[in-house]
């Protein structure tokens, strides 16, 4: 076909072939994603899988298809596998260092999600975080829960009115005592009840 076209069009033919291959790759990826979703849906209805598992399977297959498509497109564009592998390992190493550097923050964020789902306490509950079974701990009314801290309005032993900010991962390392009404607490929790 090239011999029938003028010489200036030969470069355009190479580019058109590359664009055609990329479009074909995208079409195949789209079809693969549709087939995978249908298979997952059939599998889920046949075996009565929980929605969380179905959503996880969809996300994993979508990631694999998109990542594979990206690798194929980069290969079509002429990027070598060695360059891709070097870039991937470099990003993975930087990501691992960043993950370990931010571990305590990530731990608090994850514990916040657990607090919202397991609900060991709620806003306006009166709680006490115990060091161990014998010593009294930090206590107060929960006035805020954010991604990193839970804020307590402190009560008892002359600390009324002060505010404590406790890291959220602390609630999964210590025992937490909870009262919805301060009058129910043994010995009574003083404060704004």
From TrEMBL:
Q: Name one GO cellular component term.
A: plasma membrane
Instruction: From the Swiss-Prot or TrEMBL record, state where the protein is found.
Output: Cell inner membrane; Membrane
| Classification via InterPro entries | LSM_dom_sf, MscS_archaea/bacteria_type, MscS_beta-dom_sf, MscS_channel_2nd
**What residue ranges are annotated as transmembrane?**
16-36, 57-77, 83-116
Keywords assigned by UniProt, alphabetized: Cell inner membrane, Cell membrane, Ion channel, Ion transport, Membrane, Transmembrane, Transmembrane helix, Transport
Origin: domain of life: Bacteria
Its main subcellular localisation, reduced to a broad class, is: membrane
One GO MF term on file is:
mechanosensitive monoatomic ion channel activity
> Which residues belong to the signal peptide in this entry?
none
Report how it sits in the membrane.
Multi-pass membrane protein
One Pfam family this sequence matches: MS_channel_2nd
Keyword Transmembrane attached: yes
Q: Where is the Mechanosensitive ion channel MscS domain?
A: 105-176
UniProt lists the family membership as follows: Belongs to the MscS (TC 1.A.23) family.
Subunit organization:
Homoheptamer.
What does this gene product do? Mechanosensitive channel that participates in the regulation of osmotic pressure changes within the cell, opening in response to stretch forces in the membrane lipid bilayer, without the need for other proteins. Contributes to normal resistance to hypoosmotic shock. Forms an ion channel of 1.0 nanosiemens conductance with a slight preference for anions.
> What protein name is recorded for this chain?
Small-conductance mechanosensitive channel
Species of provenance: Stenotrophomonas tumulicola
């Amino acid at each position: 076909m090239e011999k029938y076209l003028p010489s200036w069009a030969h470069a355009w033919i190479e580019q058109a072939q590359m664009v055609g291959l990329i479009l074909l790759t995208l079409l195949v990826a789209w079809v693969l994603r549709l087939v995978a979703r249908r298979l997952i849906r059939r599998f889920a209805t046949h075996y009565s899988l929980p929605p969380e598992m179905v959503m996880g399977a969809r996300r994993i297959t979508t990631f694999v298809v998109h990542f594979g498509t990206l690798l194929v497109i980069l290969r079509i564009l002429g990027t070598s596998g060695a360059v891709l592998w070097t870039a991937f390992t470099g990003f993975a190493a930087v990501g691992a260092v960043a993950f370990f550097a931010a571990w305590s923050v990530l731990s608090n964020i994850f514990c916040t999600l657990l607090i919202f789902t397991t609900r060991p306490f709620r806003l306006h509950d009166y709680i006490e975080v115990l060091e161990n079974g014998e010593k009294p701990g930090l206590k107060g009314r929960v006035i805020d829960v954010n991604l990193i801290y839970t804020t307590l309005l402190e009560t008892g032993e002359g600390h009324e009115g002060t505010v404590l900010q406790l890291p959220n991962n602390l609630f999964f390392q210590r025992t937490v005592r909870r009262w919805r009404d301060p009058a129910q607490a043994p010995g009574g929790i003083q404060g704004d009840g």
